[in-house]
Design a protein that fits this description.
Layout lengths: L7 H22 L4 E6 L5 H9 L5 E5 L2 H14 L4 E5 L2 H7 L5 E8 L17 H8 L2 E11 L2 H12 L4 E3 L13 H5 L4 E7 L5
Parallel strand pairs: 1-2, 1-4, 2-3, 4-5
Antiparallel strand pairs: 5-7, 6-7
């Protein structure tokens, strides 16, 4: 049984949100041509620390939940970081409105929702189509950093990335860019990480 197509009202509401996001991103990036992106930035704890430790980078965090976005913004404001901005956004919508001249330097995905039930696997972030869309914005040599405490998602994500022509796994010797335990990492009994590098230009 296939899901019902979205209603005209749903589509109109989505277009309105995307249009508003496009304006917000245009203002927030202010002509920046290279960014470091965290997808699912939660309460902004990790990316605020990252931006503070890397003042040479312009950092962008996105999360769909309003409470998380607001808490992230408060952290950014208290830290007075001019190289950090947060948006309330879905990853696909953010890539849609990202200005074509803006290149993603690196991407961080830390403890995303694993959607453990098989019928929900289609909602996982690391999918072939998403990796293709992401690759069109990430610079050649840019890296995707992924960490999860869900063993099944870790295995599935490695299989998906390993089969994608635009990405190649780094060796275990490549360093993690910045260590600051997130709330999820602090709660996790164990976790696994991989790093993939953008290797070829897509047509």
């Amino acid at each position: 049984m296939h899901p019902s197509p979205p209603s005209p009202q749903h589509l109109a509401n989505h277009r309105e949100r995307v249009d508003a996001l496009r304006i917000a991103v245009g203002k927030g990036l202010a002509g920046r041509t290279r960014i470091t992106l965290e997808i699912g930035s939660g309460h902004g704890h990790y990316l605020t620390g990252f931006a503070s430790a890397h003042p040479e980078r312009f950092c962008v965090g996105i999360d769909l939940l309003l409470d998380r976005y607001e808490r992230s913004e408060r952290k950014r404001s208290r830290a007075s970081l001019e190289n950090l901005v947060f948006f309330r956004a879905d990853a696909a919508d953010f890539l849609t409105v990202l200005p074509p001249e803006t290149e993603i330097e690196d991407v961080l995905v830390l403890f995303p929702d694993p959607w453990p039930k098989r019928r929900h696997h289609k909602n996982r972030l690391i999918q072939t189509g998403f990796l293709t869309r992401l690759a069109r914005h990430v610079r050649l040599g840019g890296r995707l950093y992924f960490r999860t405490d869900d063993a099944a998602y870790f295995a599935a994500s490695r299989a998906t990335v390993g089969a994608h022509p635009a990405w190649q796994f780094e060796t275990s010797a490549h360093p993690w860019p910045f260590e600051l335990p997130t709330v999820f990492q602090q709660r996790a009994a164990s976790y696994d990480s991989w790093i993939a590098r953008r290797v070829v230009r897509l047509s």
